[in-house]
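If your schedule permits, I should be very grateful for your opinion on a structural question. I have a record of one protein: its chain in single-letter code and its fold written as C-alpha cells. Kindly check, if you would, that the fold set down in the C-alpha cells agrees with what the sequence suggests. I remain grateful for any guidance, and I place the record below:

***
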Amino acid sequence: MSFYADPNIKNTERIFPEQGRSEYLRLDMNENPTGLPSDFVDDVKKKITPEFLSTYPEPDDFRKKYAGYIGAKPENIMLGNGTDAILRYLLETFGEQGKDVVTVSPTFEMYRINCLLLGLNHRPVMYEWNETMKRFFVPIEKICDAINENTRVVIVTNPNNPMTDAYEREDFLRIVDRAEAFNAVVICDEAYHYFCESTMRDVALERKNVILTRTFSKLMSIPALRLGVAIGDPEIIKVARQSQLSFDVNAVALLFGEELLGRADIVEGLIESEREGRKYLVEELKEEGYEYIAGEANYVLIKTKKDPKEVERLLREKKILIHTYGSSSVIKDYLRVTTGSKDIMARFLIAFLEADQGTESVDDK
C-alpha cells in the first residue's frame, strides 16, 4: 500500500464480532436472549413515521429526560452511538499518545484495542488467583501503584466483564483519589449496573475527574440501535462532547430509549427474569459439582470438565453460542454464558451438560 495510513490503525490486528448469529441461541455477547416485550416494540414502532425518519435526530429532549431519570442535569449527560463510541471519544480527548491508560485484565477487550488505534500505552493490572478467598482478585493497591505521572486515563469496569466482581465504594474512591493526584481521568464503565447494587453515579456527579458510562445494550435490550450515555461533571462532559459528530445518535435509538425510561414495569420485569434465570443456573451448576464465577452481572463463568473450546464447538452444533478465552488468559479453563430467563437457562443447561459430560442429567425444569 503506497498511500499514507496511520501506522497505529494500519498495524492493529482486529477481530470483528461474528456475523450470522440470528439462527442461534445467542449467549455469547451478554445480550438479552429474549428481548423486549413484543407489544411494547410494536407500540413504539407506530411512532416511526416517514416525517420522523426524514428529520435529523434531536437528542436534547432525551438528555433532559435521562438526566431527570438519574437525578442529574442535562449538562451532566453525554450521549453516544453505544458506549463503544463514547469510550473512543473519551480516550481521544483525555488520552495522550505514548502515555498510559490503566485497566485491569481480563476486561472488555475494546479498551486495549482503542489504545492501540490511538497510540496510547495500555497498562493492564492482572487478576490473580487468591487461594484464601477462592477467587480471582486484583488488589486495589496494585491498581493504585500502576497510576503515576505517566497516567492519563484509568478505566474501571463496575462490575467487570468477564470477572463479574463489583467495586467497594472505598476502593473506588482510592482509585479516584490516586488518579486525581496525577491529574488523570477515571472512566467508570457501568454497562452491567442494572444487575448490580453497586453504582458510582454519585461519585461521577460529585468529582471533577470521573466519567461514568452506561449502555442500553444489556438490560435495556436494544443493542441493535446503539445508545450509550456518559455521566459526569459539566466541565468534563463539555470537553468530551467537543469530539462528537454532529448527529452521533440516531432518532430511532433515542425514541426507544425515551420510551423505556417511562416503563419502570418493563425494566423491573427484565431484572427479575434475569435474576431468576441466573439463580436457577447457579443452583444447578452447584448441584452438578461445577466450579463457577457468578457475581453481579448477566453472565456466569463456568469451569468446564472438557476443553472449553471443545464444549464451545459442541454447543455451536446445537445452535447455542457461548464465549471462551485464549490459552494465555487466567480464565482459559472457563467459558462465559450470558444469563437470561429460567427457560433459556434450562435449555442451555441441558445442552451444556450433554456437551461437557455426554449426559442429559438435568430435566427441563
